[in-house]
Amino acid sequence: MEDYPTTVLELETRFSTEEVCRAYLYQLRWPAGFRCPRCGGARAWATVRHLWECAQCGTQTSVTAGTIFQDTHKPLRLWFRAIWYVTSQKNGVSALGLQRVLGLGSYETAWAWLHKLRRAMVRPGRERLGSTVEVDETFVGGPHPGPPGRGAGGKSIVVVAAEEDGAGIGRIRLRRVPDFSGASLGRVIQDFVEPGSVVHTDGLRAYNGVGPWGYIHEVLRAGGQEGTDPMPRVHRIASLLKRWMLGTHQGAIAPSHLDYYLDEFTFRFNRRTSRSRGKLFYRLMQQAVAIDPVPAARLRGGIFATSEDDSEST
User: Fold this and answer.
1) In what order do the strands lie in the sheet with 52-54?
2) Cα torsion at 304, 308, 310, 314 (round to 10°)?
3) So where are the chain's domains?
4) Angle CA(275)–CA(281)–CA(284) in degrees, nearest 5?
5) Is residue 260 classed as helix, strand or coil in its secondary structure?
6) In terms of CB atoms within 10 Å, which of 66, 191, 195, 227 comes out highest?
7) What would the pLDDT profile of 216-225 be if each residue is shown by its tens digit?
8) What pTM, to 2 d.p., does this model score?
9) Which of 279, 294, 289 lies closest to 87 in space, CA to CA?
């Protein structure tokens, strides 16, 4: 049964103590009951240090061990507020914005929290896109606009895949690729799209293998009625992505972290019709206890880039 607060007042009232927060994480992590991470045992007892000791092998674990909350020195209450704030803001938040709202002592903490949450925005084992899917590439980032077309330099190549939902857009997927080779683009399609689906692309030769990969490949080219876009969905997504990167993050996204911003944009877009902020909070909390922890040093690659995300969210 899905269990989540529906308003920020309910969040603050319900999760007012660390004990209640730990109990909520327990239910999310072990909905069918405790499972020892070492031996799989189902029986355990609580210790005075808020740990669970397996009755079978004696291993002690906490509800936060092995999750993005592992080794945190901040109250879980503050984490819950952060997750509510992140999921309740339609266009996302910057690290500076999160720092100000939560009253965090350092920008680095807010930056690290946001990157950990972005890693939790990809649900393990998520379904691939199906039916009819448009696939194209776009360029993002870079210090200068650069030349048009696939010859643009100093930018990152991002593959955009979007399901057709009548005249609208269904679910989407985004991924950065190193080049326009058939191997790179083919790997993305195979990861993103269910075999047997119809895949619409432009005439780039790298897509020639789409049919043999197990898809119905249809090449769409500009033509017909003047001004008609043959693949309006992926082009719309590309435009929204760039606007979001510029508006929320002022375009200050390091290429080494781009993949995780793409995950955040995908998470938000695919849930854009949800009317319940509480349910988005619940989904992100579920995923936060399902992924492995990421040390802050690994998030930064050993170097903290102060230029990234240093602007207030718009």
Assistant:
1) 44-46, 52-54, 60-61
2) -150
3) 1-31+64-120+257-314, 132-242
4) 120
5) helix
6) 66
7) 999 998 765 5
8) 0.86
9) 279
